[in-house]
Amino acid sequence: MNSRSSDHATVRTDTKPTRRKSATSADDDLEVPLKLWVVLARAYAAVSRHVETDVAAHDLTPMEFGILEVLYHRGPMLLGEIQRKVLVTSGGITYLVDRLAAKGFVERQECPNDRRARYAVLTPSGTALIKRIFPAHARTIAQALSGLSTREQSEATDLMRRMGLAAAASSAK
Amino acid sequence: MNSRSSDHATVRTDTKPTRRKSATSADDDLEVPLKLWVVLARAYAAVSRHVETDVAAHDLTPMEFGILEVLYHRGPMLLGEIQRKVLVTSGGITYLVDRLAAKGFVERQECPNDRRARYAVLTPSGTALIKRIFPAHARTIAQALSGLSTREQSEATDLMRRMGLAAAASSAK
DNA sequence: GGCATATATCTTAGTTCTTAGTTACTTAGT
DNA sequence: ACTAAGTAACTAAGAACTAAGATATATGCC
Question: Three-class SS of residue B135?
């Protein structure tokens, strides 16, 4: 039970150092993407922690913050538009906007063209909040990412954008 | 209400095209890290979706899969060790191992040196499961990341690793 | 117009975690 | 040995969602 290479594999599916590039065509080098996935997940978790700590200091979740931010930068939006922007389910956006409304940061407004739809709109209090905390939030993110130079951050942005677009595309709508 | 540049800012904190490099020293180019964070979060979400769909097909959550995988690759581990590896709280690891135990994939075993501690150990059924589904899982990830060439994936791994390590380090212990 | 189908939001129930606090045990100091 | 402090896992309560289905409205086809 110890002679086969498939036992106790250390993430790599194939350990042989012989045959380096261009594998048998199937088994097309699974090691590199697996490693990227692990590293990506850890990096995302580490940065997320900074972001969560920051927004939690103002009694917000990252989702709540994201909604305030998008409303601040783009003005009133239909719930469905926000939903697609922040990637939650329809039930989720209802719940989130309820919470923000209970805190007094957003209001619902009827849509004149479509009586099913509702706009979420920042209240003066919500506008004041996001305007006040956004700059420090941006600095928190900048510091969390400061392990890379600005040049490297731009490279990373390019890579992550292309990776994400491809992944999203192959995931159906 | 439309003449000041702080109104309706489009993510960038400063819009002036004059003065390009080396900002006033404070406000040290927040645009690049903000963009990276947005793109990173989207990319992570898109890839996560593939991963979740894949593991859900075997009635597992990503966390459950992660535990099975780490136990498979490293052998029996104390719950606290797994906890640190997969990044959950102590209550979370209890809950997760309970679920995996209820499904018959892992068992708890006493630790001879420390009677507070418990090992989680794969059952034969758990071993068979992870051995069976891991290869296809790896291929799913490879395909989700295939928007980048192998070379670019390696670059991305390097960048994400350094970024993640720095973010984790500046996040207290 | 009237009907079928699609869409926008909401509701309910359930899942997956976290937080805070507990129990049991271990280790270090005296 | 005895006590204080630390650590490992567990428990209870609750937060933040998701999934599935309900409701109300809109749209296109006949």
Answer: helix
Distance CA A31, CA A27 (A): 10
Pairing between β-strand A118-122 and β-strand B77-78 as defined by DSSP bridges: unpaired
Strand ranges inside B38-128, DSSP E? 77-78, 106-110, 118-122
Residue A154 confidence (pLDDT) above 70: yes
Nucleotides of D under 7 A from a protein CB: 6-13, 15-21, 24-27
* Edge-first strand listing for the sheet containing A118-122: A77-78, A118-122, A106-110
Residues B114-169 pLDDT 10s: 999 999 999 999 999 999 999 999 999 999 999 999 999 999 999 999 999 999 98
In whole angstroms, what is the distance from residue B78 CA to residue B153 CA?
33
Strands (E), chain A: 77-78, 106-110, 118-122
* Pick from B111, B44, B106, B107: nearest CA to B69: B106
Query: Dihedral of the CA atoms B149, A166, B70, A49 (nearest 10)?
Result: 110
| Rounded Cα–Cα distance for residues B48 and B40 (Å) | 12
- Closest partner CB to B170 (pick from A35, A43, A143): A143
> Quick check: A104 and A123 in contact, CB under 8 A?
yes
User: What mean pLDDT do residues B99-118 have?
Assistant: 96
pLDDT higher than threshold 60 for residue A98 = yes
Poorest-pLDDT segment among A1-5, B52-56, B125-129: A1-5
Q: Inform me whether the C-beta atom of residue A144 falls under 8 Å from chain B C-beta atoms.
A: yes
The region of weakest confidence among A92-96, B27-31, B36-40, B58-62 is: B27-31
Please identify which residue in the block is written with the tokens 């580490």: A46
The alpha carbon torsion through B82, B154, B162, B49 (nearest 10 deg) reads: -50
- Give the distance, in angstroms, between residue A111 CA and nucleotide D7 C1': 57
Rounded CA separation B42/B90 (Å): 29
Amino acid at A69: E
pTM: 0.85
